[in-house]
Amino acid sequence: MDNPLPPNIHAHVFISGKVQGVGYRFSTMHEANKLGVSGWVRNMPDGRVEAVFEGDMATLSQMIQWCHKGPRAAKVEDVAVDYKAAEGLRGFEIRG
Fold it and tell me: What end-to-end distance do the CA atoms of the chain give, in Å?
């Protein structure tokens, strides 16, 4: 049988809105660890948050759904996602 999606997917995500200075990165790491998602998250100079998530599609869907809400103090306006094959990331970290 043909399976169009590999077992693990890489999602490159950009979150915009009021997402810096509200604990977004720490909360993202907490949620990723809870779900077993690998990758990283960082603030960008333009005020967005950038994240990379790796895992199975069902788990990534949950993680990205969480990104649309974020922590309580966040006001998410947009979540842009680009998918590709997983790179084999392990663990989750906050960068920069």
Answer: 43
Could you tell me if 67 and 13 are in contact, meaning their C-beta atoms sit under 8 angstroms apart?
yes
pLDDT tens across 43-88, in order?
999 999 999 999 999 999 999 999 999 999 999 999 999 999 999 9
pTM of the model: 0.92
Domains, the chain, in order of start with CATH, read 9-88 (3.30.70.100)
Catalytic residue among 25, 33, 72, 95: 25
Catalytic residue among 3, 8, 33, 43: 43
Active site residue 8: no
> Residue 33 catalytic?
no
